[in-house]
Amino acid sequence: MKRAGILNRHLAGALAELGHGHGVLVCDAGMPIPDGPRVVDLAFRAGVPSFAEVLDGLLAELVVEGATAATEVREANPAAASLLEGHFPGLALVPHERLKELSAGARLVVRTGEARPYANVLLRCGVFF
């Protein structure tokens, strides 16, 4: 058994398959899941695991060259907005409907148990060299 890092075998395997430019949608429990991308559903119950916990775990494993979130996050969920802006100084903001459209092109969707609105971000993978 792995002793550190991401233990969920489905998530660890999906992350290993990602390449430069691939998209990863990290979303709350209410975000519609698009057809097509691989989905790893981590939601256990409302709030568990939190958006912040999942995002922090993913960022320890991924190289991210860009991130996109919904414009509405700033007003509807200031805590998530602050978290995202802290991690991604160049965070792109688009209307929520546009984020849903963009998420259809993601390679991987990671669903958290977050139960607050607009706790969603689309990550664009980078390379480590």
Number of helical segments with 4 or more residues: 5
Structural class from helices and strands?
alpha/beta
**Tally of DSSP β-strands:** 6
Large-scale geometry: globular
Roughly what fraction of the amino acids lie in strands? 15-25%
H/E element sequence: HEEHEHHEHEE
Sheet with the most strands, sense and barrel status: 6 strands, mixed
Helix content: 25-40%
| Intertermini distance | 29 Å
- The largest sheet has its strands arranged as 2-5-1-6-3-4
Mean pLDDT reading: 95
Q: How large, in whole angstroms, is the Cα Rg?
A: 13 Å
Low-pLDDT residue intervals, each spanning 5 or more residues: none
Give the SSE layout:
Layout: H1 9-16, E1 23-27, E2 38-41, H2 51-59, E3 64-70, H3 73-76, H4 78-87, E4 92-94, H5 96-103, E5 108-111, E6 121-125
Parallel strand pairs: 1-5, 2-5, 3-4
Antiparallel strand pairs: 1-6, 3-6
